[in-house]
Amino acid sequence: MDIEELKVATERLKNFPRKKKFLVAIDSDGCVFDSMNPKQIVVFHPKIMEFHQLWSIESYIREVAEFVNLFSRTRGCNRFIALQHIYRFLTEIPEIKQVIMEQGITLPDTTTLDAYVKKYKDISLGNPTLEEYVQERRENSLSKLLTWSKAVNSTIAAKIKNIPPFDHVRETLVLASENADLIVVSQTPYEALDREWKEHNLNNYVRVIAGQEMGKKEEHIRMTARGKYKSDEMLMLGDAPGDRRAAEANGALFYPIIPGKETQSWKRLVEEALPRFFEKTFAGSYQKKLMAEFDQALPSKPPWQELNYDHRTSYRERQPLRKAMYERFDRQGRLLIMEEEE
């Protein structure tokens, strides 16, 4: 990472001058780029199994991790908080507990992870603060966590490349930038954000890119807005409940990019929602209708808590998506395929 470039971006965020009447804050992974699925399925989840020798329960790891990171209301949460959710679920599911006991598997102890998250969750959860904590505590489990996180970043940089933005993103940015100051707010590391936005020549539409090292999304918006814009002059675009909470924490409006309906969401944004925002007719019943659709797309209850849950059936439901991700990004990668039972 270019430390000086990160410092410049951070200062730009802290000293953000208003130039347009409106402010539009934009999430990146899973919102602008179709990168959530490959980053999670091809990199994050395999790295958990690789670092902790958990390949023998691959189907369970993948099902739980996919629910946490992609298909629930925790979608888009910070990677370290996601680990907490994943390990907690793995200890709560009776079927998994039985398999773990039978195979003599040891799940990671989350004591130091929990302590790190508790100390830094209101500051910034990312490699810089984790490195600081490693130096302070000097515990092997923390060093391993940092090594895992760095391996995730380097593997993403090596494997997850040239993902174009969703259809209608560029024309939306062109339209939005005519009347609004645009910023990127994300929990993705700054280095990856900067690379991906420049890779597709989208960086010129936004005035600042804020990554996980600069704080939480709500803090990014707060530092930028700072009383410069009225509530109905600020709009957050995102694909996860955390994006919605970041908007609400700053009194801003929220437009959801619905997971699984991203192209339709961007089309509706450029043709309908963005003009409404500029005309100040977005708030109220129109936004409530969007929120209802968003809530329906991301359940809070995991499949293993449903009646008649069958792990094999549940795992196979996402199998086409996994196969597609590995076919495109890592053809030699390790992936469990469950065939249909005769």
TrEMBL record:
<dbReference type="Pfam" id="PF13419">
    <property type="entry name" value="HAD_2"/>
</dbReference>
<dbReference type="InterPro" id="IPR041492">
    <property type="entry name" value="HAD_2"/>
</dbReference>
<dbReference type="GO" id="GO:0006281">
    <property type="term" value="P:DNA repair"/>
</dbReference>
<dbReference type="InterPro" id="IPR036412">
    <property type="entry name" value="HAD-like_sf"/>
</dbReference>
<dbReference type="InterPro" id="IPR023198">
    <property type="entry name" value="PGP-like_dom2"/>
</dbReference>
<dbReference type="GO" id="GO:0008967">
    <property type="term" value="F:phosphoglycolate phosphatase activity"/>
</dbReference>
<dbReference type="InterPro" id="IPR023214">
    <property type="entry name" value="HAD_sf"/>
</dbReference>
<protein>
    <recommendedName>
        <fullName>Haloacid dehalogenase-like hydrolase</fullName>
    </recommendedName>
</protein>
<dbReference type="InterPro" id="IPR050155">
    <property type="entry name" value="HAD-like_hydrolase_sf"/>
</dbReference>
<dbReference type="GO" id="GO:0005829">
    <property type="term" value="C:cytosol"/>
</dbReference>
